[in-house]
Design brief:
Elements lengths: L9 H4 L2 H11 L3 H16 L4 E2 H7 L5 H13 L3 E4 L2 E5 L2 E2 L6 E4 L4 E4 L2 H11 L3 E6 L6 E7 L2 E3 L5 E5 L16 E4 L2 H10 L5 E5 H15 L1 H5 L1
Antiparallel strand pairs: 1-3, 2-3, 3-4, 4-6, 5-6, 5-7, 7-8, 8-9, 10-11, 10-12
Helix pairs in contact: 3-5, 4-5, 6-8
Amino acid sequence: MGGSFEVKRAEELLDAEFIAKWQDRKAIDPLARTVLRAILERFIAAGPPVTAEEVAGLLRAREPAEVYKAIARLDEKDLILAQDGQVILAYPFSATPTAFQLVFADGRERYAVCAIDALGVPAMVDQPVTIRSRCHHCGEPLEIFARPDGPVGGAGIMVWVGERGDVRRRACTSICLTLNFFRSEEHLRGWREAHPDVLGAAATLAEAFKLGAKIFGELLRDVLRA
């Protein structure tokens, strides 16, 4: 049936290969970890754009050439995306507007790469965040309020968690393109009828939050806490 799909729990969506990929990303050298922390803190505090030169300026104890090489290593690990001397993406944040707007309690606005990244931000930064997006089927605006321990309301909202056929590919150009919100199971089913060949599974909002919290609140948050 074209509109059929599985609804999975967070632990079912985190397969061993995916976890191994993130553990590999975490196993970066101390300087790369310091540089990643500086990049993420810059995204959170001041917002994009973030240039390699700015990052080097924040780490004056290091030679700029060392910082630039660390940025290149982070890019190779798919923890950031650097182009033309700028960091245009540092998971979970995007330097350019996306369909996943984040609004912090103090009014700061940022953008997440995808639905799961957006849901992972509250656990990562340990503060509540309002997520503004749209139903991927009908385009209706959605607003999700999430605390570090979970979303508040939004019980009917569903998330499609796409599969990346080759984990060597960049997440932002493969799996993140198929991680989206739907206002209801009915709307997710309607989208599936038109896109039966997209690999993946569905998750409730609560389970999708657990997935995001696992990735960004556990596997990446320690970068900010170091």
